[in-house]
Amino acid sequence: MQTPLCLAVIANSPSLVRQLISVGSDANFQLQRLQLNNIVCYRLIHCVAKKGLKWSHTLDALLDAPGIDLNIVDSEGC
């Protein structure tokens, strides 16, 4: 299931990510499976972190989310 926050992340839209988080979207949401190009992951923050510098503003938006859990591990144990 893709939430509005997932779609904002896929679109690499940090302003929309911030807006959605400000109205209650859960940045810690566990995905069933998300594939961005060749990257498969189960947490939004892991997908964005693996995308590189072009996605740094979207990563910042997720990192600024209240209650973001930085200790979550993904399917690869990262």
Q: What's the order of the H and E elements?
A: HHEEHH
What topology, given as strand order, has the largest sheet? 1-2
What is the mean predicted local confidence, pLDDT?
84
Strand content: 15-25%
> Residue share in helices?
40-55%
- How many DSSP E strands? 2
- Euclidean distance between termini CA atoms: 22 Å
| Low-pLDDT residue spans | none
Number of helices, where a helix is a run of at least 4 consecutive DSSP H or I residues: 4
Could you please describe the fold and organization of this structure?
With about 80 residues, the chain is an alpha+beta fold. The protein has one domain (about 5-65). Helices cover about 40% and strands about 15% of the residues. The chain has 4 helices and 2 strands. A two-stranded antiparallel sheet has the order 1-2. The longest helix has 9 residues, at about 15-20. The chain is globular, with a radius of gyration of 11 Å. The mean pLDDT is about 85.
Task: Describe the secondary structure blueprint for this structure.
Elements: H1 4-10, H2 14-22, E1 30-36, E2 39-43, H3 44-51, H4 56-63
Antiparallel strand pairs: 1-2
Helix pairs in contact: 1-2, 2-4, 3-4
Primary descriptors:
alpha+beta, two-stranded antiparallel sheet, globular, 78 residues
Can you give me a brief rundown of this structure?
By secondary structure, the protein is an alpha+beta fold. The protein has 4 helices and 2 strands; from the N terminus they run H-H-E-E-H-H.
